Amino acid sequence: MEQFIAKYQDLMQGTLCGFDRVVFRGMLRKLMFAGGMEEYLWKNGVLFKDYQNFAKRISERIKKASLAAFQRRKLPVVFVRSAREDKERIARQIAGERKIRSGPVCALSCLEPSPTFEHYGRQMVARVRPCLVLYHYYIDPKWGWTNARIQTWFPWHIQVCINGREWLACQMDREKLRYVRVDNCFAWVQDYERAQALLDQQRQTAWVERLERIAQQLNPLREELLQKYPSDYYWTCYQSEYALDVIFQPGQLQRLEPLFLQHGLLSFSSADVLRFLGHAVPPSGKIPARLQRRVSSDWKRRQEGARIKHRVGGNSLKAYGKAQTPAGDVFRVETTINQVDPFRVYRPEEGWKPMRKGIADLERRAEVSEKACQRYLDAFSHLDDSTLLEELLAPLDQPQLWKGRRVRPLHPFQAQDYRLLKSIHRGEFLLNGFRNRDLQTLLYDTPAQSKAESRRRSAAISRQLRILRAHKLIHKISHTHRYQITSAGHRIILAVLTAQRVTLKQLNLVLAA
User: Fold this and answer.
1) Does some domain include residue 27?
2) Is the CB of residue 284 less than 8 Å from the CB of residue 275?
3) Taking a C-beta distance cutoff of 8 angstroms, is the pair 87, 80 a contact?
4) pTM for the whole structure
5) Helix locations, 321-400, DSSP H
6) 131 pairs with which residues across the strands?
7) Positions in the chain whose pLDDT score sits under 70
């Protein structure tokens, strides 16, 4: 992220990086499987054949107990006929009409396909069938706008959804920190450093304690119903969205956003996307055969504006303009993680192990997401947002002098020079640089058959390096035999590689935007 900030710091007000939408799920460990359901029925003296009526009675009791708090306050309890309806919109509409600023807002009920059990033959089996689900919407004094749902039929799965930016607004209100909010982002904050510190505090929350209190509100009868077969909820992070917001000065994003999205669409390969999301990619840039996840990128225009999104399996990375206001403009980069198995977490007694969905690994999940956002944002720092391609490449078409000797022009779109530029711009060379022998491996298809042939190749590469140095595309690292690409070289080579990979379809898509 440092490279991006260094380039655009004069146009920026600040940055905010932290959780956006986070969805937790709670499952009773002992009731997650049919065997556990059988034992529960046995300990409660219920025959398998009577399960249907028993479960229906329990469901009615949970429904009454869960909705009692809303009915006492005379708040709306609405049955939603279709599971596809936008329940969030319904709840916010009720909050607006009743001018509710804190506390419970409403409860919604709906029939939704859910994992449950049924009696089959002589045993209980797992099934997915329509079950009554209750949604609680409320404005929490700590978390802000929050919703939680419970499946009233066994095994009483719970889901809790919070928003980190809603939470941050509550934190800043308590500290009397002024801000301008647009939807779930901030176009201006009085103190960005303090706001970021508050976002970082969210990651240190005692999640189990907080989620257990919500579970008790959803099902006040839990202790009674589990008295003969005690079981605790196992809490997982089903989905997390981690957003990095760059707040620009007013009016800047209108010019920059189309350039950012165009750059992301045309410049980032599948290997780049894998690296952004923390996957190991060999120096060759070839995607490992063991990777069974589909890698894709797409551009889409929505009602809020355009966005670019990269997907690797069930995880994604996207960028879009979030808001343009008189107070400031917000450009957002967002990492969404649904599948945690590609990532690893360090455990002191076990070493590096696969990441779990359990909230014990939520801190590591936040760290992985933040690094992905930062790598992605830094990739935009090589964007040339002012110079035309013709202006950028014009000096290469002129001969140069190197230590008093004339050096030929570079022709970046001709096969020989294009291959040279593509070779030195490989990812493994960007940090440690490259040597003459590294380029020999890439520019020649077969190994040298003799020492004389090896010397001829070395001399030929040296002449090409001299041309690159004369055009100030590379510089030599002192006291080594290595070379690195200059800042100007990065801009020029990236422009050439991007232009060479553009298809007419992509070009038309960008022009249409």
Assistant:
1) no
2) no
3) yes
4) 0.75
5) 362-379, 389-393
6) 112
7) 283-285, 384-388, 504, 506-513
